[in-house]
Amino acid sequence: MGDSLTEGYTSTGANSGKKGPNAYPARLQSLLGSGYEVKNFGETGAFLMEGTSNPYKSGTEYEQSKAYNADIVIIMLGTNDSKNWNEENYKTQMTAFYNEYKTENNRVIFAMSPKCYQTTGNDITQEKVEKVYQAQKALIKENAAWDFIDMYEKTEGKENLYNTDKVHFTDAGYLYIAECMYEKITGKKAPIEEKVKIPHTQQSGETNYFTFAEGKWEAGDAQHTWSKKVDPAHPEATYYEVKFTGHKIDIYSGKNRMMGKVKYLIDGEEKAEGDLYNATNINSTFITTISDLEEKEHTLKAVATGERNASGTGSDILIDAAEVYVYTYREPEEAKLHGTITDNNLQYTQDKLTEVKAANKTEDTLNAWKNDTVTSEISLASIDSSYTDVTATASDFTGNGNTIPKANVDLKFIKSVQAYTGMPGYGDPDREVPKGSRQEANEVLYQDAGTAMNIGTNKLQNIWVSVKVPAGTAAGSYTGTVTVTAKELAEPLTFTYTLKVADAELPDATKFKDGFDMELWQNPYRIAEYYDVTPFSEEHFEILKSHMGLYKNAGGHAITTTIVEEAWAGQTYGEGTVKFPSMVKWTKKADGKWSFDYTDFDKWVTFNKDVMKIGDKIVCYSIAPWTNSVVYYDEATKTTVKKRLTPGSEEWTTIWTAFLNDLADHLYEKGWFNDAYIGIDERGFNKAAFDLIDSIKRGIPTPLKLKSAGAMDGFVEKKDLAMRVDDLNVGSIAVKAHPQQFEEIRQAREDAGLRTTIYTCTGHKPGNFSLSAPGESYWTMMYSYSVGGEGYLRWAYDSWVENPLEDTTHNAFEAGDCFLVFPDDSEAKVTKSSTRFEKMAEGVRDVNKLIKMKSDVPSMAAKVDALMDSVKPTYASSAYYLTDAGKQELASDMNTIKTKIAELTEEYVALKKAGVTEVDSVSINGEKEVELQQGGTTQLEVTVLPENVLNNTVTWSTDNPAVAVVKDGAVTAKGSGRAVITVTSNQNEEKKDSVTIVVKEAEVEEGAQVSYYSFDDVKGQKLEDEWGKRDGTLDASCTIEAGKSGKALNVTQDGKGAVITQTAGDLNDKDWTISYWVKTTSEFNKEISVLEDSTKAFSFSLKMAADRVSGFRVGNNGGDVLSYQYDFEKDKWYHITWVQDKDQGLAMYVNGTRVGDINAWTKNNPIKTPADVIGGTGFTGLIDEVKVYNRVLNESEILSAMKVKGLNIADTNPTVNIGETYQITTNLITDVEDKTITYVSNKPEIASVNEDGLVTANKKGKAVITVTGGGYTEKVTVNCKKVLYANSRIPQYELADKYLKDIEKAPNTPRQYLGQPDMVQTKTGRLITAYPTGHGHGPIIMQISQAVLPILIQILNMLTPILNMIVSLLTPILNLIISLVEPILNLIMSAITPLINIFMSLINTVLQPIMPILQALANIFTAVLGAAIQAIQPIVQSLISIFQGLINFITGVFSGSWSSAWSGVVQVFGGLWDGLVGLVKAPINAVIGLVNSAINALNGISVTIPDWVPAVGGKTFGINIPNIPMLATGGFTDGVSIAGEEGMEAVISFDPAYRDQNIAIWQKAGQLLGTLGSSSGENAGLTNTAGKLLALDDFSLGSLANNTSTVIYYDFSGFTWSPQIQTEGSGEDADDFMARLKAHEAEFFDWLEEFIQAREVALYA
To answer: For position 321, what pLDDT does the model report?
Structure first.
């Protein structure tokens, strides 16, 4: 009798545990057996004391218990009484109650109340129950004759047996109470309950085996067996039976949507029913428990009912069987705590208890490098007893006087969680988490083993052992121990480890990114949500330190950011509506523009970079989220909008362009641009996404594009896109499916400098889930490296489910797929590792050891590669996981790899110490000439001496790949001819050896030749078989025409070709090969069969029907087809070969290459040989060289069969580098006896050829080699090209900071941030300038120039002698004008100009001759001071104008102000002109001749406008500065003269260029001399000259528009600011002309802005 503790409250089973199979009375019944009958008269909520809310004596249980008249009565009442405690009442009433049941013949046991562990609340608490217990002890003292059991004492320290309310018990707790009662009743220790697994595959024995109804079941697999279709009329005929011995049975089976219902009978009595329906497939899951059985042999029978769940699908109903677990009792053993070192590649869950008990390994050896971590596992088994205060501690590791302190040894108790055994499906935020079907996963490294814990009876507790070997540790052998203690242990358990530290040091985990690293995507929002802290708050970051530290210490360095809301479509768990927020908040402004808030993004990245010192790779996920949606706040509607976009659409492009440009600016401003990668997965692999990403560029001096990182499996179909990803991750499933194609693209990416890694996720086996073996994570690293991966990626590091420390099941994917580490429910909040994460990290470390060995000692590369070649891609699996056998095999293989790595390490260390660097010799073993048949192979072996050379690696090469190719010494013969295979030492290229490969044509023996039709000698309608006797007849409509080789059959009417008289029936269902050349003229809109059998049911078809592809028809029905898809075209020759192998199936080859896979259908089904009709249904066109063989031809023989009569030259258009050679490969097939082949070059100076066809490229160009032999001639066009090498680079110059200043800053515009100009000056003087916005990462706003710089350079070069002359004349007064020159120097220094070097050279040139004569001219200087100042003033002003003009030009260029730039140019020339005029007026007129020489030189400069320039393309413009007239007193002179020194004079030039001007002067002079009158006309005054515009310093170039009277052209020649302006129409004066120009200035600059933008796009985008 008793309360809820007797009734079984919180136990599992029928009636929610009340008086159920796991209540302690029921468990006591099982223990006592059939000799006892146990009745449960417990009542939940019952008090002993009357006057309370529910006194026991007022209930029905009391009356029934009295009426039962039991032989043994157990009274356990008092726990509820603690709530209304009255000690005296309790003691008085308990005494009366006890005596009421006690008789002379029975036994009454007073059970004192179990301990309560609830310490808070107003109900039942530890303190209250303690008072009851003290009263109960007093009762025992007062009633010495009472029989009692102290359950309070027996439950001391057993809190682990209690339910979460800490008052009631778990099933294990109720069993413990039953065991205590058993011992009290019998005086013996209770028998031990064991759980025994009986798998469905165990089908024999004395007991514990399955029997399946004959003929009703399939063979099944390792996980389960399924029935055949259940007969609805007799469903009971489908059943299985299990004979077992025990008292309880758990039944497991598979579930699926086709599965029906099952009833379960024990010994013929129906006990339970099971529904095997599930929406997705589960191979083994719990169905039901049948208990309350007598401990003896029973028979379970599972029978189909013929019914199923309403949600079931499919026409058939099936049932299933997996395994059962039988509970039986055994006699107790000697109680002890057993321990053993176990294999940490496996999980040791409670069902492995027997296995652990049988093991007894207390010593082990661990192998480590310096700066390494090694791991182990210890399993503790509590045999027939429980243990409290269990701890484990480590000693120091010592050896040879050295010590690794015990602080480097980390011991963790491993915690178990529950995990769903199936896979609920892929991501669906609305799907519920599945119920039931759980298994234990022992994987959380949760508690320090130094903190005491308890182990229940017959339980396992595992300890993870981790030893960190510090960098710099002395090499050698160390010994250390792990000691386990417990309160009940008299002697501790000791485990001894020998740690061998190699004399090799592992790089820091932070360096793994340079070898092999691990990238795990993080979800910081979920960590904040779990701990209920504000995302990216100080509290959050404090938690993240240990969290990200685990990741960093394992080699992780890439960080995950989200740039859109729900990038993973809500597939991860989250408490809110949004499961995974965006770190960037999007807002669409009311004006339609976008703004982006990077607050979270910046905090997360900054934390990782500044605090964690990681984040050199920032993955921004994603431009291609799962739903291709973006979420933003719309200011106009004041709502949050979720918009689904189609990649590549206009809207998608507009939105993502805005965001990516803004993101790029932000990243660049933060200094993170080069670390960022735009994340893409399989859904987003489209060209539009890559085009957009590639268009976003930032950086100086060379703009760099945004990088991409993406996971994809479709690299075969999307190879072009796979080559565009900067960091590509490929799934292990895809790698296994396409190993050759993966290696090809991996190698291509490596050659292109691109990174390729491997990823795993849901569906991958081996896997990384809670129910996976830990060794599978180690395997994942080994496999990833073995296939060439440079790292490993997994999608989820920490997307925790609701309660990960109890159950890792999510509503999608396999349990544990979403995370690898666990939270901490203690106050410390230190993230907990897992066994699979630790094995993953161990694998990363070991791969980096292998990489370092190969790098340091290249001679070890072959052995390392051989070890990696031993990594198996698959293991035995069922459904979502490896089978137990598969896990065991994998664990064994991984231990072998660990052993091999240790052996390689020993060799590595020895070679590092004793190895040499010099290679003495390289030699190929064996003969120096090897003969192969085409398609044949041979393996060449090489010996490199000395044997201890560190780098014994070699490179193999061939001089004629058309004949033979070589890889790692394996030679494959490709075509007939000779090739030299050379092997060269990588250490010393002078050490090499070679062998000649002679390749002969593959030949098919005569005995294999059945029929051959060449069509060369057809007479009339008769077709002869040239190999056999299968002759035929041509249809009258057929003709014989020129074919692929000689003549061919021309089928002119649909399907009317040649019929072979004797069928090929003797080849039916045997091996055969049939080949032919074909060129059809048929349209591909119907069946086109080339060859058919006599029934026309079997045929080789270019197209099998209008709606089908090419292939092999195998019957007359529409579906009787075997598809071999190839895109054939009409009017084109193809060689087709069909190979039927009865052991393999049918294969199709086109032009020597197999199409698709071998189809196994033909090996199991009868087929007829399609060789009876040539030119079948739907065919018209040419057929040639039909050959039939009676065996399977290999690929080289197929290639040989392709050959036709002629030279068969492999390549008729080769490209050869100058100085290199090329072998023309021929394969002459001819009936002519003389088979001599000759080679003649038409241009031997370009490409010469010797008598063997070896071509030498001599110089650039093309040469035609005529090849003649056997009556055939072919021509080979050789393209000789020059190899270009970059021998020099343009040096880079950086402008000092003191020259930098803001020249334009417009907040909230694209020019808010302006980058520093970058310039390159080419040899010709062309100045190329890039001037970007956005801190140097924005669009380029200008590029300049092609003509300005050369003109200015020429001007300055020509001015140099003039200025030298000026200086020589002005020396006496130079000191006087220093103060006047000072403004010029200041302006020069402030100018940012690429001409500074030229000006410095000019200044040096000027000053050097001045300095020696300054003193000598001092007196002269003083004498002429007054006059000189007046004379020099205009010169100085002109020079200031010149330099100010240059400054304006440069400033205008770099600020984007084009009018300023042009005005600067005008100012230069205007100042120059004014200066020259000033010089004329000064006393230096003798230099006028030199000045005019310079002016004429300047006028000789012209620039031709490129054709693409609007309106004036192809025209020429230049400078037009008038000469300074020579001054003279009259007469004619061709020398230097001075005019006007005596008064007015007329100077007339005879230069035709100044004809109008000088005629006008002549007319004026004539008037003054009285010989001519005033006149007007064409030549009166100055004519309108566009060149005069250059002298107008107020000129501002405007947009030039057309009108009726004048056409004005403009041109900029790619931003060259020296316009030639031409007018057409009536003459106008200069002022009017200028006014018209200025009227269109605004329009012009609008056009110019558009023009510049268009140029930017063309040049940079």
So the answer is: 96
CA distances (Å), 1520 to each of 470, 1357, 1469, 1527, in order?
Answer: 80, 18, 11, 21
Q: From CA 364, how far away is CA 377, in angstroms rounded? A: 10
Contacts of 26 (CB under 8 A, 6+ apart): 8, 19, 20, 38, 40, 291, 292
- Angstrom distance (rounded) from CA 790 to CA 757: 5
Q: Across the strands, what pairs with 1414?
A: none
Q: What would the two tokens of residue 813 be?
A: 């994917």
Rg (Cα) of the chain, in Å, rounded?
48
Alpha-carbon distance of 276 to 260, in angstroms, equals 6
Could you tell me which residues come within 8 angstroms of residue 957 by beta carbon, excluding any fewer than 6 positions away? Answer: 966, 981, 982, 983, 984
CB atoms inside a 10 Å sphere around CB 1104: 26
Nearest CA to 1376 among 1406, 1411, 1420, 1434? 1420
User: 851, 726, 860: which is closest to 788 by C-alpha?
Assistant: 851
Phi, psi dihedrals of residue 1270, rounded to the nearest 5°: 65, 25
Distance CA 1029, CA 1009 (A): 11
Only one residue has tokens 């003009």, namely 1445
For the sheet with 517-520, list strands across it: 517-520, 791-794, 755-760, 727-731, 707-711, 676-681, 617-621, 558-562
b (16+ CB within 10 A) / e for 11-39: bebeeebbbbbbbbbbbbbbbbeeeeebe
At 779, phi and psi to the nearest 5? -60, -40
∠ CA 175-179-181, nearest 5°, is: 115
Token readout for 765 is 């086996």
Distance separating alpha carbons of residues 1383 and 1561, to the nearest angstrom: 39
Phi, psi dihedrals of residue 894, rounded to the nearest 5°? -70, -35
CB 388 within 8 A of CB 382: no
What is the C-alpha to C-alpha distance for residues 201 and 878, in angstroms, rounded to an integer? Answer: 14
3-state secondary structure of 1146: strand
Contacts with 671 (C-beta within 8 Å, 6 or more apart), sequence order: none
Give the pLDDT score at 1657.
Answer: 57
Vertex 171 angle, CA 167 and 172, to 5°: 95
Nearest alpha carbon to residue 1384 among 1431, 1428, 1444, 1429? 1444
Q: The tokens 């025994």 sit on which residue?
A: 196
Nearest residue to 865 (alpha-carbon basis) of 878, 847, 883, 877: 847
pLDDT score of 621: 93
Going by their DSSP bridges, the two strands 1173-1174 and 1058-1060 should be labelled as: antiparallel
Q: Residue 997's beta-bridge partner residues?
A: 930, 979
**Which structure tokens are listed for 1389?**
């220094």
The closest alpha carbon to 1124, from 1091, 1159, 1077, 1098, belongs to: 1159
Closest by Cα among 1135, 1138, 1134 to 1114: 1138
Say which residue the tokens 């439950």 belong to: 155
Whole-angstrom Cα distance, residue 1016 to residue 1045? 8
Answer whether 1054's CB lies under 8 Å from 1022's CB. no
Please return the burial class of 466, using the count of CB atoms within 10 Å of its CB with bins 0-12, 13-18 and 19+: buried
Cβ-contact 245, 296 below 8 angstroms: yes
Q: Which residues, listed in sequence order, are joined to residue 1080 by a DSSP beta bridge? A: 1181
Question: What parts of the chain have a pLDDT lower than 70?
Answer: 14-17, 683-684, 700, 1284-1661
Residue carrying the six token digits 């960098």:
471
Residue 1335: the pLDDT is: 52
- For 1567, phi then psi, to 5°, come to -65, -45
Looking at residue 1406, its pLDDT comes to 47
The residue count for the chain: 1661
CA 793 – CA 707 distance, rounded (Å):
17
d(CA 1012, CA 1002): 18
Looking at residue 1058, its amino acid is A
State the Cα angle at 505 between 500 and 508, rounded to 5°. Answer: 125
